[in-house]
Amino acid sequence: MGSKGGLGHLKRLPAPWFWPIHRKEFAWAPKPSPGAHRTSLCLPLGLALRDDLKVASTRREVAAILAGGKVKVDGRSRPDKNYPVGIMDVVELTDANLSYRVLPAERKGLTLVRIPKDEAKFKLCKILRKNNAPKGQVQYGLHDGRSLTVQPTDAEAASYSTNDTLRLSVPTQKVLGHLKFEKGNFALVVAGRNLGKSGKIVEFQRGTATRPATVTIEDSAGTKFDTMVEYTFVVGTDKPSIKLEA
């Protein structure tokens, strides 16, 4: 007998805590489609439109809006109402001329923050993996499932490291800039108990066999806190290069 795949449905009680839904009003919640972001780190597109942005009142209205190609994610029309949108994804409502970025917020989880039109032309992607590819090429695996391959003749691009951040144009994926994971740069915490907090990296502690690598971040009030490197997302140098709050 073959192995059973994942469930095609999701109840409201075990749904991620930050989803903007009433837990006991109805039994079922939308199940995110397979995609770049895990269920625990995403919002279904239809849920974001109906319950967060409130551009529709029912799932049927959401389906009609999406079928008309009026909503883009990272520059591409997405007709699937269960399409998963996650951290740093750019959601555009073309008819209303509005743009939003999915960002973590303290005590709120993931939320959509309205951004200027010029910010909708790019997104930030964290490098999770770096591998050697055939013919001397270097391949990078990014946090949103993208894969970027660079030629060995591009010395600067081949020197990127894991945990660095790339600024990519959407939807062309052209590299517009590079932010190193180093002391003094501005970082955003995207998971853990410090979710949504941000500040400058002031110290780095290497990991061991029993303890993960961590960083110390100092926020604008001068308060320092520690978090895992895995949860840290560099978003600027002296200050954030994107809008972080509504």
Q: What's the total number of strands?
A: 19
Overall shape: it is globular
- Summarize the main sheet: 5 strands, antiparallel
Counting helices, strands and paired strands, the structural category is mainly beta
Share of helical residues? under 10%
**CATH-level-4 superfamily name of the largest domain:** RNA-binding S4 domain
State Rg: 19 Å
CATH class of the largest domain: Alpha Beta
In what range is the share of β-strand residues? 35-45%
Mean pLDDT: 91
According to CATH, the fold-level topology of the largest domain is Structural Genomics Hypothetical 15.5 Kd Protein In mrcA-pckA Intergenic Region, Chain A
**What number of structural domains do the residues give?**
3
Task: Identify the quaternary structure here.
Answer: single chain
The parts where pLDDT drops under 50 for at least 5 residues are none
Enumerate the strands of the largest sheet in spatial order, edge to edge or round the barrel: 5-4-7-8-9
Number of helices: 3
| CA-CA gap between termini | 51 Å
- Order of helix and strand elements from N to C terminus: EEEHHEEEEEEEEEHEEEEEEE
Identify the CATH architecture of the largest domain.
Roll
Report on the architecture of this protein.
This protein is mostly beta strands and 246 residues long. It has three domains: 10-115, RNA-binding S4 domain (Structural Genomics Hypothetical 15.5 Kd Protein In mrcA-pckA Intergenic Region, Chain A); 121-179, Ribosomal protein S4, central domain (OB fold (Dihydrolipoamide Acetyltransferase, E2P), Beta Barrel), CATH 2.40.50.740; 186-236, SH3 type barrels, CATH 2.30.30.30. It has helices at residues 45-52, 59-67, 155-158, and strands spanning 10-11, 28-29, 42-44, 71-73, 76-77, 84-86, 90-93, 98-105, 109-114, 122-132, 138-142, 147-150, 165-169, 175-179, 186-189, 198-205, 214-218, 224-228, 232-236. The strands form five sheets. The protein has a five-stranded antiparallel sheet, with no helix packed on it. Strands 12-11-10-13-14 form a five-stranded antiparallel sheet, with no helix packed on it. The mean pLDDT is 91.
